[in-house]
Amino acid sequence: MYPKIEYICFTSINGYGIAAYNYVRSLSNFDVSVSPLDFKKSRKNSWDFDSYLKEDDPERVQIFHCNPTMQKRHPIYNERKIGFATFETFDPPDYWIEILNRNDAVITPSKFCQQEFKKAGVQVPIHYIQHCIDRDLYHPIENFNKQFDKFTFLFIGAWKKRKGYDLLLQAWEKEFKASEPVRLVIKTNRGPAAKHFCKQFVKSAEIEIIDKFIPEQEMPDFMRAADCVIIPTRGEGFGLPGLQALSLGIPLITPSHSGCTEYTELGMTYNIPIRGYEKAAEMDQINQFSNRVWADIDVSEICKAMRDVYEDRETYRTQVIKNNKLLSKFSYKSVGERFKEIFSPENS
């Protein structure tokens, strides 16, 4: 008999919200109640959790899918609680570890995170449950009708230095000129800032900034219009857009380090080599990232990666589609089985 679950999470369409929504969808064998941390009935661009909104039940196991410091936003604590934790680089902060150790267990979305939290001092059981996506929605279409006559690179990510947008644009200007039939589309959350930054790259090939909201059901076709997804990230707890790209059969360029290794080690990705790691006093003005080390990526390696995929596009696309079955571990069904394992009577 599996326990009832209260899933405490964000409902907005951001990294935490998307991952939480997919986890909740994977829990089809459980009686799940969702307690939103940011829910407003009038809110636009939020997941529809109406069917999961139920009366408080002190017998439910609580899963807090949020930054550890955010757990205090929920006013009610049941007898058994589990904290979700992800960190984008090494050495998570001590105050996070203290909070996580107050839980009965911790869930992390990648083996990288599991190892880092264990090394940092988390004493309670740490369960690795990989992030997942709707594989019925994200799947390859062999003859998708692309609307652009130029080879399209797509960057998807928040406008944060950690995501490597600065490295990407330096490489773009260096490698592709306006005379070439190629374009870079940047889908991000801060359009004005992105457009302002891109003004300096006037001699490069075409750049388009998109910051409008795209509903989840439309995202696969939006991504399928690209010939390659590129995310030169300095660090990830997992990196959902990379998994989405591979699931759609789109070649992916990204470094193979941190949480990205969950899928970059499957042999489907063009892995940008890294020179090592470098310490940064601050990263994106986020407190927990102060004085942490991040992947050091050579711009010339990004140039080479883009040029290689551009010139040998069919080889890379065939490779991704041929190995697509390797991504079955990221389906709702597979992740649901992982939840059943950790909540089985012998593990309770």
Key structural traits:
Rossmann fold, 11 helices, six-stranded parallel β-sheet, 18% strand, 14 strands, 348 residues, 2 domains, alpha/beta
Structural account:
The strands form 3 sheets. The chain has a 6-stranded parallel β-sheet, sandwiched between helices. A 6-stranded parallel β-sheet has the order 9-8-7-10-11-12, sandwiched between helices. 29% of the residues lie in helices and 18% in strands. Helix 1 packs across helix 11 and helix 4 packs across helix 9. The relative contact order is 0.14. The chain folds into 2 domains: 145 residues, 3-Layer(aba) Sandwich (Rossmann fold); 179 residues, Rossmann fold, CATH 3.40.50. The mean pLDDT is 93. The protein has 11 helices and 14 strands. With 348 residues, the chain is α/β, with parallel strands linked by helices.
> CATH superfamily name of the largest domain?
Glycogen Phosphorylase B
Runs in which pLDDT lies below 50 for 5 or more consecutive residues are: none
- The overall strand count is 14
The structural domain count equals 2
Q: If you consult CATH, what is the topology of the largest domain?
A: Rossmann fold
**What is the overall shape?**
globular
**Percentage of residues in helical conformation:** 25-40%
Q: Mind telling me which CATH architecture of the largest domain this is? A: 3-Layer(aba) Sandwich
Class by helix and strand content? alpha/beta
